[in-house]
TrEMBL record:
Ranges for domain LysM: 65-114
Coiled coil location: none
Superkingdom of the organism of origin: Bacteria
Organism lineage: Bacteria, Bacillati, Bacillota, Clostridia, Lachnospirales
Source organism per UniProt: Parablautia muri
Protein name: LysM peptidoglycan-binding domain-containing protein
Record Gene3D superfamilies: LysM domain
Amino acid sequence: MVRGGCGYMETRILKQALLCVCSMALFMIVLPEMAVRADEREYPVSYKKNPDSDAPYIILEEAAEDYTVLPGDSLWEISRKLYGEGRLYVNLVDANQDILTSPNLIYPGMELKTARTGYIERTQSKYGGVQMGEYSMDMPYGWRVGYMESGEAWANFVMRGDGVVGCLVQDKERDTSRTVEDWEKCTQKITKYADENYATQVSDLGFEHYKMKNQGDGTGEVYLYSFLWHVSPDYPSLVFRVCMGLKLTDHIQAEFVGFASDYDIQGCIRYITASFEEHFQEKDSGNFTVNGSNMSLAPNISWELSGMFNPFPFMDEYFTSKLEKVTGSGEENEGKGKYKGRIGN
């Protein structure tokens, strides 16, 4: 019941979007693209606690390299390069109080700490979220749980509301830890893969990495990357923001792939991923496993980043099949693994 209903709803939504594209064709010259980052941020990261809030916090420590001061640098310019805004130089001052006697006194060769500690108000925890015994996670209030599929792409546990989030939870793999150990190298491989296989579909690729220390069941590391997915050159305004989140705890790896059109899915995925907790008990150490918890995604196409879910063929199959169903094109290839042909498998 859930499966069929969700498929019908998703097809109807996409059909409405395509009809809107056609009816508004004359306005596309002056209107911005339909799918851009939402102006309103969901679950924003703040670099100081809100004194007026009683909500618990998720604490994210940025995993960032130190910065070597160059000739002509100022804290304002360094902040602009690192954080996107010069006025955030105060974060550099706070992180380097042991060596900065004055914000105006920096010199070439000085090593500045650049990692910041961020806070996300855990506003959704009071609603219970998703409780699975061995693990749990927060879910945005008002969202519902279901199933989704399109062509050969499917997820058997999906959170759906302003966006769509598919979940993959499994025992932690050694390959995954080795893959993300050098996150900078990992980001380069992801970028190269997207450029070589999905150059026309993927743009605006960005990465994040956080450590979560001394947070009880929530302790672990969080890895994120997001991008814009261009569904078809025939419908240039049909673009979705996609975000992939990975959290590694002591025994579990939880992965989340989400997409939305005009909603901050990046903030949502960051929140859900960071809120994930494992509930390991020593008495279960001999037989602790989550591989049977029925949270899976497919297709799961292998790539160089061993142990990590590959979201690109998943999104390709999902959106291409939806588009073909709406437009009536490609019916002879329906369900024949179109994504395999695109990446040479």
